[in-house]
Amino acid sequence: MRRGTAACLAAAMLLALLTGCTGEDSEPDTLRVGVLKFGSVNWELDVVDRRGLDEAHGIDIEVVPLASENALAVALQGDRVDLIVSDWLWVARQRAKDKDYQFAPYSLAVGAIMVNPAAEVDSLADLDGRKLGIAGGPIDKTWLLARAYAHQTEGVDLESAVEPTFAAPPMINKLVMDGTLPAAINFWHYNARLSALGMEPLLSVEDMLDGLGIETVPPLLGWVFSSDWADDNREALQSFMEATYEAKEILAESDEAWQPLEPLVKPESEAVFAAIREGYRAGIIEHYGAAEIAAAGQVFNILAQESDGEITGGVSELSPDVFWDGFRLQ
């Protein structure tokens, strides 16, 4: 019996050695990533693919294009994909419903109130009685932060002082350019387009946070996934994060790396392309740890107060458990 066991072990070891000599590697872990058909997530994943960063980290990325943010959420909840990009507000709301999603950082909270120089707006006070375009709707996060900032630093009820004008992002930009709107809040890549066309930032999200006593700019968007899935695929997820952050580093340091992305970015001009490139770089996370997680909690509290709990779905606080413990940046 012992001799037979030893013989079996010897045969197994020989088989393993012979198999190893064939040069065959184990299959890489596949991660199904849900993405919108446009936007910066595609740019990063394109760099990962072109540079072979996925293969270098022993993973295979299956990109699943989807049509809307709602479609992304449905795909994640229906187990059609493993990861999507969303914000920690969504994760917090889902966890309050006993759904075990978690968050790992993708980009910083960036944004600004942009103004048309011809409108002669040099401060929030100059917007009194005038229109302010808002692309994200009544509970747009930058709009809520701007209201909190105005109240705390200037004692101004911005919601009453201005005439909020809600419209789709392209229309907001058009109305700023033709002078109908003296100022606007839009998504970062639309702000970049305005910047390239001569519009100027009046107040950035970083300025707002500083005025609100939040010294650290937290990530807002992140990779979102089931915590059970993350437990089962911890090394693969860490490899994915490493690969995507290497892609960010390439895009941060090399203008040349952006050239293959031009068909994806679809800029209207070289100036717009340059502005979008710089806008993307402004959102790259360089540090992520306890300070950033604490800052996210502070922002959560402000957003909850300004929206009367609407944006947070009635969740009272941002639990640290929202943030996956498998990734940190020093």
From TrEMBL:
Residues 1-23 form the signal peptide. Coiled coil: none annotated. The keyword Signal applies. It comes from the Bacteria. Keywords: Signal. The keyword Signal applies. Pfam families: NMT1. This is ABC transporter substrate-binding protein. It comes from Salinisphaera orenii YIM 95161. Residues 55-252 form the SsuA/THI5-like domain. InterPro entries: SsuA/THI5. PANTHER family: ABC TRANSPORTER SUBSTRATE-BINDING PROTEIN, ALIPHATIC SULFONATES-BINDING PROTEIN-RELATED.
